[in-house]
# Entry
Amino acid sequence: AVKGVLPGSPAATSGLGVGDRVLAVDGKRYGAERVNFRDLYFVFEGAVGLPVEVTSVKGSSGGSAKTQKLLRVREPAVDDLVWKSARVVQRDGKSYGYARLWGMSAEAALAIVDMLSDPKGAEGSRPNLAGLSQIDGFLLDVRGNIGGYEPNILPTFLRGQWYAADYYVISPDAKRLTPPPYKPLPVALLVNSGTASNAEALALKFRAHQIGPIVGE
# Structure
């Protein structure tokens, strides 16, 4: 089952959506039988520009199958995807920030850190973030996130502390200066069954350090 679709990707423009079922890739069928992880995960790997043939069906309704050729493209920068996903939403008289993480990396984590540590700067440079400096809470979305390298920057930052291994300056007299703690925003984490690897580890850190509620499967 499709757990997440990168916005603007060939999969998205082809009409594939969350909940659709992939029945076959390049003639290799996927069904109820157990699948080798390498066959499942690396089946879409290949040179940029080469096509891959995907047979899928909408949702789990068992409707008619559709086969189409998708072109492989270079994976976009994860921090750029974070900024493009970010927005401010209004609910019941309050406003909340939202951003989605595709993959886990220092760049993705730092996009969130930049967004929340300098909200006025973010809203001044990005029309989609107007009102970010006035939000009452923040929703972090890791649905369909397959993980990657996560160096603890993000969970530490969301607890109201800087990750001392990465954030410090050396003063003229050679003393190490670390930014002071700050009051964190209420944060919730949105997950689904496609939240995997270090994205799932992030959810475990939310629970272990009581950063905020985890919503989803």
Summary: The radius of gyration is 20 Å. Residues 167 and 214 are 27 Å apart (CA to CA). The helical segments are 10-14, 37-41, 78-85, 106-117, 119-125, 153-158, 197-208.
